[in-house]
From TrEMBL:
This is Dolichyl-diphosphooligosaccharide--protein glycosyltransferase 48 kDa subunit. Its main location: endoplasmic reticulum. Pfam families: OST48_MD, OST48_N. It comes from Panagrellus redivivus (Microworm). It is a single-pass type I membrane protein. The keyword Transmembrane helix applies.
Amino acid sequence: MLKLAAALLLLVAVAQTAPAKNRVLVLLESPAAKQTYSIFLKSLETRGYVLTVKRAEDANLQLFKYGEFVYDHLVIFAPSVQEFGGSLSVAEITNFVDAGGNVLFAGGAKLGDAIRELASESGYEFDDDSTSLIDHHNYDATVDSGDHTAVLVDPKHLTKASVIIGNKAAITAPILYRGSALVANPKNNLKLDVLTAATTSYSFAPNKVVNEYPSAIGRSAVLVGALQARNNARVVVTGSVELFSDAFINANVQKVGSAAKPVKSGNGPFVDALSQWAFQEKGVLRVKSVNHHLVGESAPPRDYTITEDVEYSIEIEELKDGKWVPYTGKDVQLEFVRIDPFVRTFLKPSNGKLTTVFKLPDVYGVFKFLVDYHRLGYSHLYDVQQVSVRPLLHTQYERFIRSAFPYYVSSFSMMIGVVLFSCVFLYHKEAPKAVSTETKKAK
């Protein structure tokens, strides 16, 4: 009986800590490859994900069934696959992302058409066939086979968005990378360059004479790229499937020519942080509540009146460690918009909410309280509250306006002047004129 109770408690605890969307499809080139990535896959299971591992060419592959998701996330570690099995295709994966699914996939030195096409749909392109990232100054002395393709990437080349890579202090060792380089599409505004190569790196076929300018060189060579779609679905692409392998995670790396002792590579914490962001365990925002009202009141009125003082508050939550906590960002802006913004102001954290007080413009019409929050690595937050702003009623206007006092004075002075002139004109009698002696004699 005690064992049954303990088992039930364990199930409840797992259910509370497991992600709400925890079904992951992992595609490999062969079933034996599962052992190659056992540490990474084990970390996903530890975080509560339910993994389904299949061959990339399995005839029963499908992401949708009866219009519903079969899986919530997709991982592809099959760089050389030419076509996916079953109903799975690049078009279906694109529809999966459009419907809100998340995808993480990796390439390698040998690439199939399927992975190339999928990368192109994600805003990146792999370099030419048989090319690899090469760095003659930053390669591992123990893993490299002599062609300098086992490149060590300094953590300083990671993106500055800590929400994607986690705590940068946790990734202090170099990241071991071997594979292709990516070239970003400059016209894609949704892409994020997570990890770029050093300035001494370039992409070319190993052990061949460099007789032309490489297409990816220095910081333009992207090693790990990401994309957050407009519906907040996430895609992560890298040119190195070995980045996630047990051999690279456990490798003790040492830069060639360095006198320092070998250290464990930074691949472990890096791929964990990367998968957490890709599967929306962090960097996710939501609006819990919105409130707006006149200053001194608590409920919104039927409509507002021009020039009134309004208090606006919004409660935004961020997903951290599986729990929703208040988001206290100081760069969230509120816009009061009719066609163009009439008011734009920052929201200040206060008691777990973001608030502001402002005066309504002296313009009436239909307005919107608009919060449109875009920040690197965070999900897009958009909230609109529509309100009406009316002009003053005839009983609300001031009886006397200070700015009109000169006109009041001029009006009354004119009235007084007219009265005085009328009095003078009506009641003033002209004195009789004196009659001359000649006039009297004539009479």
